[in-house]
Structure formats: C-alpha cells, structure tokens
Amino acid sequence: xxxxxxxxxxxxxxxxxxxxxxxxxxxxxxxxxxxxxxxxxxxxxxxxxxx
Length: 51
Known about the structure:
By secondary structure, this protein is an all-alpha fold.
C-alpha cells in the first residue's frame, strides 16, 4: 500500500513526459509547415508517426 503513491507519481511523470513529447511534435510540425519549401517530406513523416 505504501508504494502506491510512488507508482501514481511515476505514472503522472510518464504521462507528463508523453504530453510534452506530443507538444514538441506539434511544434515541430507547425514549424515544418511554415518552412515547407525547405523540407517538404517532414510533415508527412510526422503524420505517419502519429498514426
């Protein structure tokens, strides 16, 4: 019973890291859309990764 809060905390941190990863991915995709002429293949690759 004593280790349950630790597991919960670890899960929260993991979830937070996951959300941060998603946000970073979204940011990258938006930047890629802005500089679409430089890297046309990038948004498509990220779309495939999301599925």
